Amino acid sequence: MHGKLVDMVLTNSIDRRALADLLFQLADDELCIGHRDSEWLGLAPDIEEDVAFSSIAQDEVGHATFYYELLAELSDCSADALAFARPANERRNALLTERENGDWAHTIVRHFFYDTFDALRLEALADSEYRPLSEGVAKIRREERYHLLHLHLWFVRLGGAGGEARKRMEFAIDQLWSDVGGLFSWGAWEEELLTKKIIPVSSFELQHRWQERVRPVFAEAGIPWIEDLQQPEKDGRVGEHSPEMDRLLLDLSSVYNLDPAAQW
Amino acid sequence: MSIADKEIRFMERIKAGYKIEATDWMPDEYRKLLLKLIHMHGISEIMGALPEKEWVPKAPTLKRKLAIMAKVQDEMGHGQLLLRVAEDLAAPFGRTREDLVTDVIHGRVKFHNVFHMEAPTWADAGIIGWLVDGAAIINQAALLHTSYGPYARVLKRICAEESFHMQHGESIILTLAGGTDDQRQMLQDALNRWWESLLFFFGPVEVTASAQRMIDYGIRTKTNEELRQQFFTKYVPRIRSLGLEVPDPKLSYDEEAKRWIWTEPDWEKFGRVVKENQGPKSQQRVDLRRFAHEEQQWVREAMLRSRKKTVSMIV
């Protein structure tokens, strides 16, 4: 249905698992960040930003829905069951996306880091040999472009404003930096995904590109660049998560779990 | 022209069905009544985001999550539109957006009783969309013919969006009503919780002095009781058709008088809720607004500083 490669993917159980793993990374990242974004509803620093930021949150959950629906086609589960019923150790999102919201600086830094990464990931996936993905990614990239413009502006303005804003930005960067390295992992199946050209770019290369893009923005914001990116203690891409993820899931699924078999 | 002459001409224009615009001369009383109404309306939209926002992270399907996010975003958007209208009205009094927003934190502006109440289950999120927004549409649709042009135009958009909200709420309600016993019970409990608040929402039966002045000025055209009766006519049959019970044993339609007979809510209790922020969730929600505004002043200040820098660079 989606071309020769998909047929091959679907008939080879290893490839199928590798592909599903990648789709879970995409879906879980977008669901977590969209969920965290949506917690700002009604509470953003001004009313105009509340409306703008909610659009971003909706886009992220919309993208997650697209990925979960691709996954639903590969499995017997519904997109909702995949989004709501999987335990933490099956979740493939990077730790950065599950962290609880801090102040507005924390939200801007996290989102700017994530969106820059996501733009690079989508850029790479636009060349994926898995067509349902590369086709969907084209639409998603149009929306993500605006998120990145918005977050870039916030990052530079808050960083450049000096005073309390600058202090809070530096504190947020300090807090989040150790999670950045975890974004670039392609999980347990990187080799298979690379060989089959489902992902065209290694995690090493992705990290390099991210640093190239973010460094000039630090300069623009007048924030000193940090050279080292550490490998995180926990790799979300293989199902290792923080207690913050458990709390996120408890919230996310609290109604769904009242009766997973019911219609909601 | 003397003030008295201006007032006579103003009333003639209103009677002839002209819309008053922000830059037109208007009596102080008209401006104050409008400002009070629109300020409260705008702040109620913003405070109204809070009970539902509790359910945004917990919405039980991807579709519901997207829908409730979009809905709460609309409410914030309505708040923004209404505050823009209120800002123009408030300017001659030397009052700014900052004042209009902080008034609620200091208890200087009221917000609708329904937004002081608890929303402890997912069914409450459905009832808010279906019946609270349903009641709001009835109120707001009646205001579409208001004599103040900027308010009428903003209301047109608000009503269009509210009708989507009502459908969003109705969809949640229909799913629960057609669901398991537990889901139906959750729905009935939520209806029981909200009923009295919904009746209070329309305001007292008697026409107060300020309500009468608003009718004289064409700011509003219908009485509270007319609107409440409309609400019964539209929603009571729908509620019953879902197999739900309206929690008012006295509720019935008097065919001869062509009106609904109903049990009045505890006016005094809800009066305290609205006037003194004594509802079960009043303080918590005012505190959330205080957090959003006061504790994030540093963000707004940083943006102003950063704009000044940009401007000085361009100059």
Fold and architecture overview:
Chain A: It holds the Pfam family PaaA_PaaC. Chain A: It comes from Marininema mesophilum. The complex is a heterodimer of chains A (about 260) and B (about 325). Chain A has about 260 residues and is mainly α. Chain A is about 65% helix and about 0% strand. Chain A is globular. Mean pLDDT of chain A is about 95; it is low at about 1-5. Chain B is mainly α and about 325 residues long. Chain B has helices spanning about 5-15, 30-55, 60-90, 95-100, 120-145, 150-175, 180-200, 210-215, 225-240, 265-275, 280-295, 295-315; strands at about 250-255, 260. Chain B has one domain (about 5-315): Ferritin, core subunit, four-helix bundle (Ferritin, Up-down Bundle), CATH 1.20.1260. At the A-B interface, helix 3, helix 4, helix 7 and helix 8 of A face helix 2, helix 3, helix 11 and helix 12 of B.
Q: Which quaternary structure do these chains form?
A: heterodimer
Largest sheet of chain A: none
As for the CATH topology of chain A, it is Ferritin
Examine the secondary-structure arrangement and name the CATH architecture of chain B: Up-down Bundle
CATH level-3 fold name of chain B: Ferritin
Total DSSP E strands of chain A: 0
GO cellular component, one term (chain A): cytosol
Pfam family, one (chain A): PaaA_PaaC
GO biological process, one term (chain A): phenylacetate catabolic process
Organism (chain A): Marininema mesophilum
